[in-house]
Write a structure and sequence with these properties.
The chain has 17 helices and 13 strands. By secondary structure, the protein is of the alpha+beta class. The strands form three sheets. Strands 3-2-4-5-9-10-1-11 form an eight-stranded mixed β-sheet. The N terminus and C terminus are likely disordered.
Length: 425
């Protein structure tokens, strides 16, 4: 790679290698809406212009989130630990997302599926496309953890006469889609959500792999897993594992887009069904059924599934409290032997199952809230949704001690004057 990344945690920039997006706002995840004729809707749909999570939740679910896990996981009707016992070829884990989307086409429930495949000749460079056959969906199996302009396909959907659509996408893409839903003229929309955190551009992904893997060119799948390590699966079937604590963040702190560091929807809470892995034990997938349409989707997938128990072990609270202190005063990277000990203790004593998911989401909320305050303070009331402050309330004393400001702006005079209605949109 000739050029190093130019954006990230300490710099407000957009993308390091993609010149086509020059001139766009700093907070842009390249969802693709602005590449379509629906660009006119950007101001009222963009999650980074005005986060409408609460308003969309009222329309989808008829209520706000309840106290407890919904503040972190989003509103849901049912939650499962499940997997497909014999994954289809090319699946990253058990293949639930592509199996479900292909089944919708097989049953004639939809005319097309918006998904993402890899650019020919690459493994991870994203190429959004409108799949019209189950075979096309299955050929797109596997994660592409890069910014992808998926919503630019909405013009193709309209021009090709598709009226019943399935959409596979990330939280920011789903927010935009939901906010524009009434304008799309669809008879039926199925939204399959994938959890998402800190996507990067394709060149930055190549940099990441080159820094953490012994053989970056042979990596076919990778993911940040529940055992506090990154799993990288190679062409020969070997799985390489790299401890979180060993990732050289000093060399990677500039690869994450400002939009991803200002996002508050890792669990993709506005989808009909969310399919991930974070809240379950190793080897299983995490399923959150959110709407009546989500129940319909789950019923389609159910005959393929094996079910396991939902578990939770450990206590995240003390660890998150220490994380707040580290956000305020980032420590130096520990030496190798200390890192080995930390990795051992994380696996031995760290949170597991649902408690692991809670810890990851809370850390993302805390990190991203502080990022918005440090870099985009004037946008906080429009970008940070209501539930963030409620979810993080247990850490308010630690936050206020570390940062010398209130965690919830509604608790100070400025916050009272602004009011919470700004979060609704």
């Amino acid at each position: 790679m000739d050029e190093g990344p130019s954006k990230g945690l300490y710099e407000i920039t957009l993308l390091s290698q993609d010149t086509r997006l020059k001139g766009r706002p700093k907070l842009c995840s390249d969802c693709g809406l602005c590449d379509s004729s629906y660009r006119r809707l950007m101001a009222q749909t963009c999650v980074f212009v005005n986060n409408k999570t609460e308003a969309i939740e009222q329309r989808l679910f008829g209520r706000r989130r309840k106290a407890g896990d919904e503040l972190l996981f989003g509103i849901y009707r049912a939650m499962y630990a499940a997997r497909i016992p014999k994954p289809p070829p090319g699946a990253q884990w058990s293949g639930m997302v592509t199996t479900l989307a292909a089944r919708l086409l097989e049953r004639g429930a939809v005319d097309g599926v918006i998904t993402t495949r890899a650019v020919p000749g690459t493994r991870f460079a994203p190429q959004p496309f409108l799949a019209r056959t189950p075979e096309e969906v299955r050929a797109s199996a596997g994660n592409k953890p890069c910014l992808s302009p998926t919503l630019n396909l909405l013009d193709e959907v309209r021009n090709s006469g598709v009226k019943r659509l399935a959409f596979i996408g990330t939280g920011c893409q789903v927010h935009m889609l939901r906010a524009a839903e009434a304008e799309l003229g669809l008879e039926r929309l199925y939204v399959i959500g994938i959890p998402c955190s800190d996507n990067v551009t394709y060149p930055d992904l190549q940099l990441f792999l080159s820094l953490i893997s012994k053989s970056p060119d042979t990596v076919v799948h990778y993911e940040f897993m529940q055992d506090f390590s990154v799993w990288l699966r190679h062409e020969n079937g070997h799985t390489e594992r790299v401890n979180f604590i060993d990732i050289p963040m000093d060399k990677l702190s500039s690869v994450f887009p400002s939009a991803c560091l200002s996002c508050f929807d890792y669990p993709n809470t506005l989808a009909d069904i969310t399919l991930g892995y974070m809240g379950v034990e190793l080897g299983w997938q995490w399923v959150l059924v959110r709407t009546a349409i989500g129940e319909e989707l789950f019923d389609l997938l159910k005959p393929e599934l094996e079910f396991g128990p939902l578990t939770e072990r450990g206590n995240r609270r003390n660890g998150i409290g220490r994380y707040v202190e580290m956000l305020a005063r980032p420590p130096a990277r520990p030496p190798v032997l200390i890192r080995k000990l930390i990795a051992f203790l994380q696996r031995r004593r760290g949170p597991k199952g649902l408690e692991f998911a809670r810890s990851v989401i809370e850390m993302k909320l805390l990190r991203n809230l502080q990022y918005v305050r440090d870099r985009f303070a004037k946008h906080e009331a429009r970008v940070v949704p209501y539930h963030v402050y409620e979810a993080l309330e247990p850490y308010a004393p630690a936050y206020e001690q570390a940062f010398e400001q209130n965690l919830d702006p509604a608790t100070d005079e400025v916050g009272r004057l602004k009011g919470r209605t700004l979060h609704v949109g």
